[in-house]
Amino acid sequence: MRPDVDLGLFADVPDSRRRIMRAIRGKETLPERCVRSVLHKAGYRFRKNVTGLAGRPDIAFSARRKLVFVHGCFWHAHAGCRNAAIPRTRATYWGAKLARNVERDRENMIALEAIGWAAEVVWECELSNIDVVLARLKAFIGPVSVSKAKKKNQESDG
Ligand SMILES: [Zn+2]
C-alpha cells in the first residue's frame, strides 16, 4: 500500500467524526439546514433552535405562533417509514429508546399547543421532494408578511 494513500484515508477520519458528533448533538443537521434554506429563499424570516420552548423547535415564527420541527426518521421513529427500522442488534434497547423519543415528541406537541403554538413536522425522508414540503409549509405558515414583500420590491427598484 502506498503511504500517501494511507495518509489520505486517515486524514479524513477526524472530520467525518466531527460531522457525526455534531449531528448527534443535534445543533445543526443537514435536513434542518435544507428546510431553513428553502424557507429563507421563499422570503420567510424566523428564529432557530428556540431553547425556551418544549422540544427546542428547529424553526419558529414567533409573531405567528407557528413552529416547524424537522425530524430524523430514525430518531423520531417515523411510522411506516423504511428509514425508521429498528436495528436487529439490541432491538429491545432501541425499541424502548425510540418509543421514549416518540412519547417525548408527543408530550412536547401537547405542551406547545397548550400555550398557543401550532407545530408542523417535516420528516427527513420527505426532503427528497422539497417542493412538496415547501408548498405544505407555506400553507401552514401563511404568506410572507406584506411589509417584507414590499421592502423587497423597494430594494429591487432602487
Ligand atoms: Zn421517514
Walkthrough of the structure:
With 158 residues, the protein is of the alpha+beta class. The protein has one domain (31-142): Endonuclease, Chain A (3-Layer(aba) Sandwich). The protein has helices at residues 3-11, 13-25, 30-41, 91-114, 130-141, 146-157, and strands at residues 47-48, 59-61, 66-71, 118-123. It has a four-stranded mixed sheet, with helices on both faces. The longest helix is centred in the middle third of the chain and has 24 residues, at 91-114. The radius of gyration is 19 Å and the shape is globular.
Task: List the keywords.
158 residues, alpha+beta, Endonuclease, Chain A, four-stranded mixed sheet, disordered N terminus, binds zinc ion
Shape: globular
Written as H for each helix and E for each strand, in order along the chain, the element string is HHHEEEHEHH
Mean pLDDT: 84
What CATH calls the topology is Endonuclease, Chain A
Q: Ligands bound here?
A: zinc ion
Task: Show the helix and strand layout.
Layout: H1 3-11, H2 13-25, H3 30-41, E1 47-48, E2 59-61, E3 66-71, H4 91-114, E4 118-123, H5 130-141, H6 146-157
Parallel strand pairs: 3-4
Antiparallel strand pairs: 1-2, 2-3
Bound molecules: zinc ion.
Zinc ion (ZN) binds near residues 73, 83, 123 and 125.
Short description:
With about 160 residues, the chain is α+β, with helices and mostly antiparallel strands. It has helices spanning about 5-10, 15-25, 30-40, 90-115, 130-140, 145-155, and strands spanning about 45-50, 60, 65-70, 120-125. The protein has one domain (about 30-140): VSR Endonuclease (Endonuclease, Chain A).
